[in-house]
Amino acid sequence: MAEFVDSTVKEIDSRLRELKEEVSKLEAARAALVGVRRGPGRPPGSRSTSTSGRRRAARRPGRPRGRRSGGTRAAQALELVRNQPGITIPQIAENLKIEPNYLYRVMPKLVSDGQVRRDDQGWYPASS
């Protein structure tokens, strides 16, 4: 009985070491991914100490920084779908000169609004 307990404890210890190594690798991968992504604002302590002499550029009131007004890309994508039924996201992106990943957020919104539908890889006006 003592041999069984000893061998089982050794197996558990061995497995725990493997899992700790795996956790360490996963934490390193997560840290690398999170480090790439920037949230709003600067991280604490990243400001230069010599910012007192600098002024920020004035911006227009009533419009958030870095945002366009209401659905410009969605309207452009919808127009392309109406003019070229069956068009794909990469083709829309090429026409609009933007990255396709943005359209993977825009197009489902147009579907939920009932303006377009998807058939296989192509996009069509909802009315046709």
Structural write-up:
- This protein has 128 residues and is mainly alpha-helical.
- It has two domains: 1-36; 71-125, Arc Repressor Mutant, subunit A.
- It has helices at residues 2-36, 72-83, 89-96, 100-112; strands spanning 116-119, 122-125.
- A two-stranded antiparallel sheet has the order 1-2.
- Helix 2 packs across helix 3 and helix 3 packs across helix 4.
- It starts with a helix and ends with a strand.
Key features of this structure:
Arc Repressor Mutant, subunit A; 2 strands; two-stranded antiparallel sheet; mainly alpha; 128 residues
Radius of gyration: 26 Å
Order of helices and strands: HHHHEE
CATH class of the largest domain: Mainly Alpha
Averaging pLDDT over every residue, what do you get? 80
Give the overall silhouette.
elongated
What structural category do the secondary elements indicate? mainly alpha
Whole-number tally of structural domains? 2
Number of helices: 4
Please give the CATH architecture of the largest domain.
Orthogonal Bundle
Strand-residue proportion: 5-15%
* DSSP helix fraction: 40-55%
Give a count of the beta strands, DSSP E runs of length 2 or more.
2
Instruction: Give the CATH superfamily of the largest domain.
Output: Winged helix-like DNA-binding domain superfamily/Winged helix DNA-binding domain
The strand line-up of the biggest sheet is 1-2
CATH topology of the largest domain: Arc Repressor Mutant, subunit A
**How would you describe the oligomerization state of the chains in this entry?**
single chain
